[in-house]
Amino acid sequence: MAFIASICPYCDNGKQITANRTSWLIHLSGHREEIIEHLTDTTESCQFCSYPEPSVNKKHASSHYRWAHQKSTLINWALDNLEKQILV
Ligand SMILES: [Zn+2]
Ligand SMILES: [Zn+2]
Fold it and tell me: Which long-range contacts link 47-51 to residues 24+ away (Cβ below 8 Å)?
């Protein structure tokens, strides 16, 4: 099984974690609010809608991410967008 080594950008202390994909997803699921905040700050429109409407404002964007999409979608996005090393 492959291991993913990265620094968790959502932990306050920038914790270095080496874990398999499942453990990473479990860890990141504790950071749902931080991931929503990060998405809201870094994207102009939704990353997950096929035909996204531009967000009116940040409040609108964060509630869209919170309610229109599955938590697992956000978590998988966060994992795929880590600057990571895959150790095999
Ligand atoms: Zn973390
Ligand atoms: Zn969307």
Answer: 47/77, 48/73, 48/77
d(CA 35, CA 77): 9
H or E segment to which residue 19 belongs: strand 16-19
CB 78 within 8 A of CB 31: yes
Distance from the CA of 84 to the center of ligand 2, in angstroms?
25
Q: Which ligand is nearest the CA of 40, by number?
A: 2
Q: What does pTM read for this prediction?
A: 0.91
Q: Is the pLDDT of residue 13 over 90?
A: no
